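The methods section describes the discrete structure representation at length, but only in general terms. Since the whole study asks how a given chain folds, the encoding of that fold should be made plain. An entry of this sort, consisting of the sequence and the corresponding backbone structure tokens, reads as follows:

. . .
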Amino acid sequence: MTELTMEQQQSAVSLVAKQMTQAKTQAHEIFGMVKAFDFTQKLLTVSTLKLLANIKETKQYKDLDIYDASGNCQHVSTWDEFCNLLGFSRQKIDTDLLNLSDFGETFLETSQRLGLGYRDLRKLRKLPEDARAEIVDAEFSETADKEELLEKIEELTAKHAQEKQILEGQLKQSHANYEAQSKVLKNKNDRINQLDIELEKKKNHINTLSPDEKGGLLRKETSQLAYNAEAILRGQVWKAFETLDSHTQESGIDHKQFMVGTLAEIELVLNELRTAFNLPRLADGDNRPEWLREDFEGKDYSAEFNAILKGDNQ
């Protein structure tokens, strides 16, 4: 890095001091203009607000010495003190600067001309950006009516409040649904965990049983499942058949074929179980299939076979 000569350092210090002096001078001038222009009306115009926005942004108010209304010299170090010496509160000036930033020069001048108050502008600022743009971006003639503008603000405010209420209701419902689903999921997970624990306990218990005890336990569990299936057939399916039969008597619509088909599906499952595990049809103590029993009478296919040989089936 190149070192500055003594002459260059002095020149730089002089330039900074000059700039600081110019900034202070400008701040004093703006302060005087604001005091002179807005003293009687207590209303900060758009032009004044633009000057104040620059002072606040560049912090030109710092280290100013300003005479108050009593003629006493006041040293300014904060924005709050500067605003008070102007005769306004910091909150008021900051609100005006916010309105200038949000609404722009044109609409703020229109609002001042029509006499809109802070309450009206606050309502307008709370509206969504697209709704606010309907008013801010509109063109107002010199003869524009204040009441018409206020009515439009109230209309959009009411519409926004209604939309907000609907969205809050939807959000509340979504939250309630989420809570309910979370609760159901938690209960389901708790139930699964409990079943896993019981299953593990049962496995450990079964490993300690003798073959006869283990077989008895398995039969008990199978009987329970079969009982549940029987209860459904005797209860729910039976009730459904009664309802179908009543509907037939009332309307004349025949449901018998449908009912037969339903029973056929149940019988099909039973036959599949019997076939899959090679089970006899009766629990008579004989585990041999029917075709191996002495009293088995199979269908005589000899007549059909002879007819095929003779060609009688043509």
Remarks:
- The mean pLDDT is 81.
- Residues 210-286 form one domain.
